[in-house]
Amino acid sequence: MEILDEFDIKIIKELEKDGRVAYSTIASNLKISNTMVHQRINRLFESGIIAGIKPVLNEKQMGYDWASFTGITLNKDSDSAGIIEALKGIPEVTECYFVTGSFTLYLKITAKNHEHMRKILYEQIDNIPGIAKTDSMIELGCAFKRNVTL
After folding, report:
1. Using one digit for the tens of pLDDT, what is the confidence trace for 85-140?
2. Which segments constitute the HTH asnC-type domain (predicted)?
3. What is the pTM of this model?
């Protein structure tokens, strides 16, 4: 059994255009019943395929002109759970991934300016017990960002 059929994909594409679109509008655009749209979207939420519908913020418009991709080396990888909880307490850390290679964790950090970034890195992240080292690359702009192709 396929996870997504043709109608699921069409409904998701409608939501990608505008997450606030009325279900009745989706039904009308796709020439299917309103009930079918409701049932499909509910199933997509319940299965975890749609994890949520939330606004996509333009950080630069909000005054956050700097971003970095920061690799973190831990003293002991087994301490990662506590370190991740501490990182969750820093609002400017917007993404955190487990990775292979030289680092244990890889972060995206968003800051208002270089001084703000310095404070996040040196005064907050470097003071989390168990972090041995950080290595950052400054983001110069996003070429594109998208969902996986359906």
Report:
1. 999 999 999 999 999 999 999 999 999 999 999 999 999 999 999 999 999 999 99
2. 4-65
3. 0.82
Question: What CATH class does 59-139 carry?
Answer: alpha beta
Residue ranges, comma separated, of all CATH 1.10.10.10 domains in the chain are 6-47
Could you tell me the fold of the domain covering 6-47? Arc Repressor Mutant, subunit A (1.10.10)
Domain with CATH 3.30.70.920 in the chain: 59-139
Q: Quote the CA–CA distance of 12 and 147 in Å, as a whole number.
A: 11
Query: What separation in angstroms does the CA of 52 have from each of 18, 30, 55, 134, 146?
Result: 13, 22, 10, 31, 15
Residue 2's pLDDT is: 66
Quote the CA–CA distance of 51 and 74 in Å, as a whole number.
30
With b for 16 or more beta-carbon neighbours within 10 A and e for fewer, the 18-37 pattern comes to eeeeebeebbeebeeeeeeb
Neighbours of 68 (CB within 10 A): 19
Dist. CA 87–CA 18, nearest whole Å: 31
